[in-house]
Amino acid sequence: MALRVLQAVAAVAVLCRFPVTLTRAGDRSEGTPGQSYVAAVYEHRVILNPEPHVPLSRAAALKHMMSNLDVYEEQAARAAEQGAQIIVFPEDGLQGFNFSRLSISAYLETIPDPQSEDWNPCTQTDRHTHTEVCTEPDPERISWAGL
């Protein structure tokens, strides 16, 4: 089994005062062309809900998440300009944190069990409810990410 190596190519660009780190990943021992890629890791200052314990409507929660998604879109395009082929965003970067069980509910998306159902939210937009972050206004907005 070949040793997998992550080799830092560059820690580049402060984008909106946050670093995007580009890393080349691949199998150094095999040296086969096409066996590596350039990845970017983005640190995001989340646009937070000022009152995370107050429940919002689904429309208000979507508007809030879209404001963070707008930043993701811009940063993905910038990372692609610098050679990134894939980008990693923070786990809670779209909605933020400090929610109560009740107040987070408007932010939640349907994620069906992949063992019982084969579903692509970008091509089957009407199959489940509460999938707007992936499907609105453009069904390919999340999946393309400018890369």
UniProtKB/TrEMBL annotation:
E.C. number(s) listed in UniProt: 3.5.1.12
Signal peptide boundaries: 1-25
Ranges of residues in domain CN hydrolase: 50-147
Single GO molecular function: biotinidase activity
Keywords for this protein: Signal
Enzymatic reactions: biocytin + H2O = biotin + L-lysine
PROSITE patterns, sorted: CN_HYDROLASE
InterPro entries tied to this protein: Biotinidase/VNN, C-N_Hydrolase, C-N_Hydrolase_sf
Function summary: Catalytic release of biotin from biocytin, the product of biotin-dependent carboxylases degradation.
Family from the record: Belongs to the carbon-nitrogen hydrolase superfamily. BTD/VNN family.
Full protein name: Biotinidase
